[in-house]
Design brief:
CATH architecture of one domain: Alpha Horseshoe
Shape: globular
Distance between the termini: 95 Å
CATH superfamily of one domain: Tetratricopeptide repeat domain
Strand content: under 5%
Largest sheet: 2 strands, antiparallel
CATH topology of one domain: Serine Threonine Protein Phosphatase 5, Tetratricopeptide repeat
């Protein structure tokens, strides 16, 4: 009997050790994937996240829900205080991270699949709902985007990304009032968040308040000089005002800060084309489409409009 107990303890100790080693390896791979992603090594980042997903999928965790309001979002069908057998949360995090790489590469179907899987595994992960909302926003499926951003905010009322994302949907729909309500909520949570001021600038620009937009963009840049968005926003304003040289200058700064900025490349291409710099414009259009193939039809339509005599 004592031998059986000793063997059982040894087996459990071995399993615990292996799980601990795999947990550390999954964490290291996630960190490595994020480092590669920031460095622009997207394929290598995907490989690291994929390995993290494979390893963490072999791990399990038991979660105990102590608050009744956890149940609806985190463990549907669970009883109060019940121990829930769940997939290791590292898997959901790695899926979101890999989905973000696919999103940047313009591979929206793959990004959506990863976000869907992350939500199924860990429905209480607000970041997964935010990221899936971004896919719906990109596809202009506004109702779905609002639903996902709202779910993220419900799970985490301090989700600044959730408020920013939902404000972008409202702006896209022309509902500037609701956009500002969400951005005001985000500012209360993070008063020095540069992206919030950039998005406020966009909302003002879309509403026709050019002066207000420029002020918001300047505030954003004062907080974070490395943020490319305000330069793009100013480029949009100058392009609309037909101040083409000024537009090109601002858009060039945006692209210098973020070389993978398809809308900035597309708009700079339009400005260059309108200035008669066809060869330079063509280079920008090709770069934009190489990064985000979905822009090709929009670029072709824009070129046709510029080249059509008025």
């Amino acid at each position: 009997m004592s031998r059986i107990i000793i063997i059982t303890v040894a087996i459990f100790s071995l399993v615990f050790t292996i799980n601990a080693q795999n947990s550390r390896k999954a964490d290291n791979l996630n960190e490595e994937g994020l480092r590669l992603y920031k460095a622009g090594s997207f394929e290598a980042a995907i490989d690291a996240f994929s390995e993290a997903i494979e390893i963490s999928s072999s791990l399990t965790s038991t979660q105990k829900y102590l608050r009744g309001n956890d149940l609806a979002d985190r463990a549907p069908g669970a009883s109060f205080g019940e121990q829930i057998f769940a997939v290791d949360p590292r898997t959901a995090v790695a899926l979101v991270n890999r989905g973000n790489v696919y999103f940047v590469l313009g591979q929206m179907a793959k990004a959506l699949d990863d976000y869907d899987r992350a939500i199924r595994i860990s429905p209480g992960l607000a970041e997964a709902w935010v990221c899936r909302g971004s896919v719906w926003l990109f596809r202009r499926e506004h109702d779905r985007a609002i639903e996902d951003y709202s779910r993220a905010i419900k799970i985490d009322p301090r989700s600044v990304k959730g408020y920013i994302g939902r404000s972008m949907v409202f702006s896209d729909k022309g509902n500037i009032k609701s956009a500002f309500e969400d951005l005001d909520a985000a500012l209360k949570l993070e008063p020095k968040n540069a992206e919030v001021y950039y998005r406020r600038g966009n909302a003002r620009r879309l509403s026709g308040d050019t002066t207000g937009a420029l002020e918001e963009y300047k505030h954003a840049q004062d907080l974070d000089p490395t943020l490319s968005g305000p330069y793009f926003g100013r480029g949009c304003i100058y392009y609309a005002q037909r101040e083409l040289k000024a537009a090109v200058a601002e858009l060039t700064k945006a692209i210098e800060l973020d070389v993978r900025y398809p809308p900035a490349l597309m708009l700079r291409g339009y400005a260059l084309l309108a200035m008669g710099k066809d060869a330079d414009a063509d280079k920008d259009f090709k770069r934009a489409v190489a990064i985000l193939p979905q822009l090709k039809d929009e670029i072709d339509a824009g070129i046709k409009q510029i080249m059509t005599p008025k």
